[in-house]
Amino acid sequence: MRANVILFWILAVFFALSAAVYAFWSAIDEVDPGMEWAGTVALSLTAVLAAFIAFYLGRVHSAQGAELPEDRLDANIDDGDPELGFFSPWSWWPIALAASAALAFLGLAIGFWIAFIAVPLFVISIVGWVYEYYRGNFAR
Fold it and tell me: Tell me, what's the pLDDT at 140?
């Protein structure tokens, strides 16, 4: 976690310097003189966000005192490999679910009537994904 804190502080300093250079460069532009505010504000807020994350991670590291496996020199690869859960590598239901969600967003963009087709497909896909292990070859 200490390495992450250092990286985010480096990012905060980098984006702050980038914001200062960008503001100066846009102010001395000969074609369009004056400050260009959109990029300056975006880079400044990116620096602030990186500083917030670095500050938070630093506080958590100091409060918990725990070290991640990445911070220890004697750690093995298996130390940073937690159990993430059970996933079905052969399942087609997430693809159907994503297609129905894409169809619903397409209905919002083009015509609302397409969403009426997407909602039943979404319900069928989510029910199929949830109850995938209750029937067929993979029933438990």
Answer: 61
64 falls in which pLDDT band (50, 70, 90)? confident
Q: Is the dihedral of CA 111, 113, 116, 118 positive or negative?
A: negative
- Residues 114 and 38: their CA atoms lie apart, in Å, by 37
Residue 67 falls within a domain, yes or no?
A: yes
Contacts 24+ apart (CB under 8 A), 39-47: 43/15, 43/18, 43/19, 44/15, 44/16, 44/19, 46/15, 46/19, 47/11, 47/12, 47/13, 47/14, 47/15, 47/16, 47/18, 47/19
**Contact of 26 with 37, CB cutoff 8 Å:** no
43 and 19 share one domain: yes
43 falls within a domain: yes
Is 74 in the same domain as 8?
Answer: yes
C-alpha–C-alpha distance, residues 82 and 27, integer Å: 50
Dist. CA 8–CA 55, nearest whole Å: 9
Query: Which single residue is written with the structure tokens 């994904």?
Result: 129
Task: Tell me which of 32, 48, 80 is where a domain ends.
Answer: 80
